[in-house]
Design goal:
The chain is of the alpha+beta class. The chain has helices at 2-59, 67-76, 112-120, 161-165, 169-236, 242-272, 283-293, 295-300, 319-336, 382-387, 394-404; strands at residues 83-88, 93-96, 122-129, 136-144, 149-156, 279-282, 304-308, 314-317, 342-350, 353-360, 409-413, 419-425. It has eleven helices and twelve strands. β3 and β4 (136-144) form a beta hairpin.
């Protein structure tokens, strides 16, 4: 059931990611193809009109430019709705089959198709309203060098011409059908990939859970076995010296405290995300409270504390979890830094977030251990850590607290020796 849920969610995410890229590509391709087809149809229409213009230019070599003669030519070479204009090299109209006023028309050299024809021999204008007659036309002009004339033909934008210039929707429908088919294939592919990934994630999750269970079991066994051993010795030897009895009881008490700390840390990790509270806090007050609660311990170990933090650090978050964050960092210094070490706590605004630095000048940790410091139960020196009472979960709680407050944390060495934790909150 868990695998199916993971597969379904991951499959949807993967599918929508792939489909978005596919749709962008397909949309760009279809737009390009539609524009390309329109350009092709315009070129085809222009070519037809250019051929008509050239044929008329050849005919003008053998007939005069007279209205009756040209009208007769148009009847023997019909092209529906055609408007035909003949102009001289200066752009003045010599004939127009749709107006009798052409001798009075101004020169047409400002027209795009005329300019192009005079410059290159051919020219067209896709969509322009006629100044002489009503309506919009597709113009195609041709320069006839033997006669030094311009022949311009034009077709009106009636119900036929726009239809002729429309893209071929048969192709677009075919492309759409192909796209839908590819979508189905992509969906099946994404589900298959999602199933493989989900199974791999599930195996990894089970392995992590097994490792975690083994670690917890091992960590619990050590203090429990110690307590049991001391109590069994006390039970079997009721006549042992009082001093020894007190010593054994003291060790039982220390182990029980370690056991209680382990249970408490596990509870903190387990409930951190589930019971996270969001309220307005002053992190500066939390830091000061932690340092006040640990002041006697630092003093007893001959350690000093320096702070460089603003008067107020406003933040939305969970007060208990943030207290646990800074308390664990302080306890970590108390536990592992040498006597006489110095703890430095700094905080400053970094854009919309707050950045923090908690460092000490103790012995530090090996460089290869830095990436693993926040893993659960990770210890650089397992034997020494247990002797000092560490549960191996303190920095894991720090990591989770930072993560749940939208931040990130990393460890770095302090030269010549020491360790610094840097993190963002907010």
């Amino acid at each position: 059931m868990l695998i199916r849920m993971k597969t379904s969610k991951f499959s949807r995410q993967l599918f929508f990611s792939i489909i978005l890229l596919f749709l962008l590509f397909a949309g760009a391709f279809l737009l390009y193809q539609a524009q390309r087809e329109k350009t092709f149809k315009i070129a085809l229409l222009d070519r037809q009109l250019q051929d008509y213009n050239t044929a008329l230019g050849d005919a003008l070599l053998h007939m005069p430019i007279e209205e009756d003669t040209l009208q007769s030519y148009l009847q023997t070479h019909p092209l529906p709705s055609l408007r035909l204009t003949i102009l001289d090299a200066h752009g003045f109209v010599l004939f127009d089959n749709q107006t009798k006023e052409y001798p009075n028309l101004s020169d047409h050299r400002s027209r795009k198709e005329i300019q192009d024809a005079l410059r290159t021999g051919k020219g067209y204008c896709l969509d322009r309203r006629s100044v002489t007659v009503e309506g919009e036309y597709f113009y195609s002009a041709t320069w006839i060098p033997e006669q030094e004339l311009l022949v311009r033909s034009a077709l009106p934008y009636d119900e036929h011409l726009p239809q002729a210039l429309k893209p071929d929707y048969t192709f677009l429908l075919y492309a759409l059908a192909l796209m839908l088919l590819l979508l189905a294939v992509l969906y099946g592919f994404s589900r298959k990939v999602a199933q493989i990934v989900a199974k791999a994630q599930d195996r990894e999750s089970l392995a992590l859970q097994k490792e975690m269970t083994q670690n917890i079991s091992h960590e619990l066994k050590t203090p429990v076995a110690g307590i049991r051993g001391y109590l069994e010795t006390l039970h079997l030897h009721p006549d042992m010296p009082v001093q020894t009895q007190r010593q054994f009881i003291g060790r039982c008490l220390a182990l029980s405290r370690r056991l209680a700390g382990l249970v408490e840390d596990l509870g903190t990790l387990d409930g951190a995300e589930r019971e996270l509270q969001h309220e307005k806090l002053d992190v500066a007050d939390i830091i000061r409270q932690v340092l006040e609660d640990t002041e006697a311990d630092f003093s007893r170990n001959g350690m000093t504390v320096e702070t460089d933090i603003p008067e107020r650090i406003p933040l939305q978050g969970d007060g208990k979890l943030l207290y646990s964050l800074f308390r664990n960092l302080a306890d970590n210094t108390l536990r592992y830094a040498s006597a006489g070490s110095r703890l430095q706590v700094k905080a400053w605004a970094d854009g919309a977030r707050w950045q923090f630095s908690v460092s000490d000048d103790g012995p530090g940790v090996p460089e290869e251990s830095l990436p693993h410091l926040y893993e659960r139960f990770y210890r650089t020196d397992k034997g020494r850590s247990r002797e000092l009472g560490g549960t191996g979960l303190g920095l894991s709680i720090v990591y989770e607290a930072v993560r749940l407050h939208g931040g990130e944390i990393w460890a770095e060495p302090v030269l010549p020796h020491g360790l610094r934790h840097r993190f963002f909150l907010g």
